[in-house]
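Changelog-adjacent note: as of this version, every example in the card shows the full chain rather than a window. The one below runs 119 residues end to end.
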Amino acid sequence: QVQLVESGGGLVQAGGSLRLSCAASRRFFRLNSMAWYRQAPGKQRELVAQIISGGSTNYADSVKGRFTISRDDAKNTVYLQMNDLKPEDTAAYYCNVAGILINTPKSYWGQGTQVTVSS
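Full-length structure tokens:
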């Protein structure tokens, strides 16, 4: 089993920045993707940013040019740098890691970290 521990959320004014971190407790045999999702009250969980095994990245249109996803394989950690934050970015942010620990591909979720952007 693996645990994903997220940190970096908080309260920030519009235009400010936050950096989220998600550390996996174990190294994967093979990582397929690492991603950040978010869920605002009353809304469905949505993909914010994803980085796949080859290093390619995908972003939701609403965050392109403002958010950057990156990873540090040596630390089993994925980051989300969020700049120029807007009130509509307010949500619980969840880390997702998909890969193989030993021999079975699985998807794992973090517990979530709250980001609140005030206007």
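Structural remarks: The first strand starts at residue 4 and ends at 7.
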